[in-house]
Structures are given as C-alpha cells and as structure tokens.
C-alpha cells in the first residue's frame, strides 16, 4: 500500500471510506510515482562531471548527501568535531535525509542533476546584454526582453498550481533575475488562471519520517520561498491574468505593483482548508486594507473581484480583459526604460525598513502552518479535494 494512503487511512478514516475515495488516491499515487534506474543514476553521476558551471556549495552538499543516501543508506558516520567544518557540513546534509529510502534518494539525485544540467546550460548560453528565453525550466517560462524579465507560471492544465518543483524554480528564477541586466521583473500566469495556489498533491508524497517530517520540510521550503520575495531587490510586478488563490494572493503584498485583468479574482480560503495565512499576509494585508477587511479575506475566505481588490489597495490597477495584455505590457516597457539603479534604490528605501519585520513574520507564519498541516481539519480538506469531493 502506498505510504500516504496507508497513513491517511490509519489517521483520518477510522471506520470507513466515506471521507476518502481510496481508489482515486491510489490512482493518483500510481500516476505520480517515478523511479530512476541504476543506469539513470550512473548517467547522472557522469553528467555532474560535465557541468560547465559550479552549482555552488549548497547544491553540492545536496548532491553529496543524496549520493551517499542512494549508495549507503542513512548516515552512518560519527558526527565530525566542531572545527572540522567541511566534514560537519557534509555530515549534516547526509544526516538530514534521515531514513529516506535509497531509491527515493537515487531519484532525487537524478532529478536534481537533470534540473542543474538544463538550468546551468541555459544560463551559460546567454550572452550578457542579449535578450533571451530560458528553456531550462519544467514549470516556468522565463524570458528577458526590453529590460523586463518575465517569469510565467506554466502549468496551465493544473491552473498553475505550485508544486514543489515550481517553488524551487521560482526561487531560482528570482535569484537569476535579481542579478541579470533587466530593470524590472514580472510574475504572471499562462492560461486562464494566474495560479490556484499550493498544489494540493504536494501533501501526498509522505517521506519515511511521516507527516511530521513532511510538515517540517514544507515549512522550511515555504520560509525560503517567501524570503526570496522579501529580499528581491528590483521592482517586482504581478500581472494577474486570471483568478488567483492561496499563496499566489498572499504574496501580492510583497510585490511593488499589481496589475489585474477584470477577470481576476482573489481568494484565500485558508480556514476552509484548515490552514492559516502565509506570504507575510498576516502583516501586509491588515496594513494594506485594514484589519477588518484582511480578516474577511484571510479568516472568512471572502473572494474579492479585481475591482474590490483594487479598492482595498491590494491591486494597483484593473484593466478590461480584452485589452489587458496590450495595455499592461506597454506600460511595463515604459517603466523598464527608467534608470535601473534609481529604481532599485527607491525600492530599497521604501521597503528596507520593513525587511527585518517581514522575515520575522514569515518565520512565525511558517511555524504556525507547520502545525496546521498536521491537523485533521487540514488533512480532511486535502483528502476531500484529492478525492474529487470538493472544490473552492
Ligand atoms: C509548501 C508551501 C505551502 C504554502 C501554503 C499555501 C497555501 C495555499 O495556496 S492554499 C490554496 C490551495 N488551492 C486550492 O485549494 C485550490 C484547489 N483547486 C480548486 O478548488 C479548483 O481546481 C479551482 C477552483 C482552482 C479550479 O476549478 P476548475 O476550473 O473546475 O478546474 P479543475 O478543478 O478541473 O482544475 C483543472 C486541473 O487542475 C488541478 N488543480 C487545480 N488547482 C489545483 C491545486 N491547487 N492543487 C492540485 N491540483 C489542482 C485539478 O485537480 C485538475 O486536475 P485534473 O483533474 O488532473 O485535470
């Protein structure tokens, strides 16, 4: 039996299958299960040697840890002494994988190398100062043109739900955009949705450490992810092309401007999902729109139209859907011609005095959410969605 199904059955379906449609979950798990062969693993090891760019220490540590876990299993080395910094870091990375099965570590190693090969290769092909299209991403389309780096969420058939890979790719794309020669950065969605928020299937892949480890890893990922938005140094603009849900809404409080189509809606149904606000919205929303209006959205899950979101200050301006792309991009191209250093410095002076506070809020929200993810309220909501029993 697949681990998630087993755990959910144990924990949330005490007497019957009324809450969870078991075959649906099982089918879902079968569809998503992938295993790398020994040959794939060996190919990946060879690929690492061919990487043209140094992927950096953090990634090298991840590779080391996954390699050791895949070949030897859980960490079996004694913890190095305090002054043995390099071996201590390696030990820490390996030990953090706990009892992750060898096959999963092998698969994660292969995935990581494959993402490195594509992203590093694509960036190494870029000539400085030239327009470019990055094809190295699985879940994004990233282009840089006319002084604008556009990060487009690209899972239109899943309403641009953010799976774990997408969280990592967005962080990667933001880090790259913060250093490239564009003046402004834009986040938008491909298809009819801006984003349906966190991909609820993220909850299905339960590691051997159980739901507690899953929740802990989720909180670490979320904190790092939101931190990238807090620290982003250039003007960051959201082009909200359609409905936005959950984390794709809460993050808007960290953007410097938000342009929305009149088709867009803004929905944060955290209580319905047994969850709590993230993306620093527990701090930014009351400041932007008043505590009572923030409560309507974040606690009672009130869905706002684009016009309402604009009236409450979350959205900068709303455009008719028929002319949205044309009008917004004309405007953005004009902004991108402004002196980039002046824009950066002005953003810094507007945002910097809040940064420390935002990081503290982010940490607190992630820790609260970690607890919520372990609650029956949350798990029932996820199971209900996955078993096709509910939608927002
Ligand atoms: C680790 C960091 C965690 C950060 C914490 C973040 C919290 C949040 O973001 S909370 C918000 C979570 N989002 C949702 O609860 C939305 C769930 N989705 C829906 O309710 C609906 O899909 C819809 C209202 C967004 C759209 O409905 P509809 O127009 O009828 O389209 P479908 O439901 O048929 O969707 C097409 C396709 O996409 C899949 N999908 C859509 N959203 C998600 C999602 N958030 N997670 C996973 N999958 C999603 C949907 O299941 C369909 O898939 P297929 O059936 O395979 O075609």
UniProtKB/TrEMBL annotation:
Catalytic reaction list: (2E)-tetradecenoyl-CoA = (3Z)-tetradecenoyl-CoA; (3E)-nonenoyl-CoA = (2E)-nonenoyl-CoA; (3E)-octenoyl-CoA = (2E)-octenoyl-CoA; a (3Z)-enoyl-CoA = a 4-saturated (2E)-enoyl-CoA
Pathway the protein acts in: Lipid metabolism; fatty acid beta-oxidation
Protein's cellular compartments: Mitochondrion; Peroxisome matrix
One Pfam assignment: ECH_1
Main location: mitochondrion
UniProt entry keywords in alphabetical sequence: Acetylation, Isomerase, Mitochondrion, Peroxisome, Phosphoprotein, Transit peptide
Descriptive protein name: Enoyl-CoA delta isomerase 2
Lineage of the organism: Eukaryota, Metazoa, Chordata, Craniata, Vertebrata
């Amino acid at each position: 039996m697949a681990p998630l199904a087993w755990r959910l059955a144990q924990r949330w379906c005490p007497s019957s299958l009324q809450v969870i449609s078991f075959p649906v979950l099982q089918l879902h798990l079968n569809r998503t299960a992938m295993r790398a062969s020994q040959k794939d693993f060996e190919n990946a090891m060879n690929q690492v040697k061919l990487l043209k760019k140094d992927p950096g220490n953090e990634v090298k540590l991840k590779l080391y840890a996954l390699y050791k876990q895949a070949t030897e299993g859980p960490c079996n080395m004694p913890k190095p002494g305090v002054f043995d910094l390099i071996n201590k870091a390696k030990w820490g990375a390996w030990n953090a994988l706990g009892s992750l099965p060898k096959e999963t570590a092998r698969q994660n190693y292969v995935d990581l190398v494959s993402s490195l090969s594509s992203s590093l290769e694509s960036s190494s092909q870029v000539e400085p100062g030239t327009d470019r299209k990055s094809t190295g991403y699985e879940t994004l389309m990233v282009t840089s043109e006319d002084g604008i780096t556009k990060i487009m969420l690209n899972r239109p058939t899943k309403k641009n739900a953010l799976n774990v890979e997408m969280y990592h790719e967005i962080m990667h794309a933001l880090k790259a955009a913060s250093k490239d020669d564009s003046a402004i950065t834009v986040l938008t969605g491909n298809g009819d949705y801006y984003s349906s928020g966190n991909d609820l299937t993220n909850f299905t892949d339960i590691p051997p450490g159980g739901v507690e480890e899953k929740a802990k890893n989720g909180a670490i990922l979320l904190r790092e992810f939101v931190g990238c938005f807090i620290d982003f140094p250039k003007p960051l603009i959201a082009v909200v092309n359609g409905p936005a849900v959950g984390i794709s809404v809460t993050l808007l409080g960290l953007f410097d401007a938000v342009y929305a189509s009149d088709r867009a809606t803004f929905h944060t149904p955290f209580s319905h999902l047994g969850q709590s606000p993230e993306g620093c919205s527990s701090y930014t929303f009351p400041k932007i729109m008043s505590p009572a209006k923030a409560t309507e959205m974040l606690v009672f899950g009130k869905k706002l139209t684009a016009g309402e979101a604009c009236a409450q200050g979350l959205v900068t301006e709303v455009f008719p859907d028929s002319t949205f792309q044309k009008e917004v991009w004309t405007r953005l191209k004009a902004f991108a011609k402004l002196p980039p250093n002046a824009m950066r410095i002005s953003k810094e002076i507007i945002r910097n005095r809040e940064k420390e506070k935002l990081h503290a809020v982010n940490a607190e929200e992630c820790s609260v959410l970690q607890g919520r993810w372990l609650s029956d309220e949350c798990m029932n909501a996820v199971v209900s969605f996955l078993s096709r029993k509910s939608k927002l």
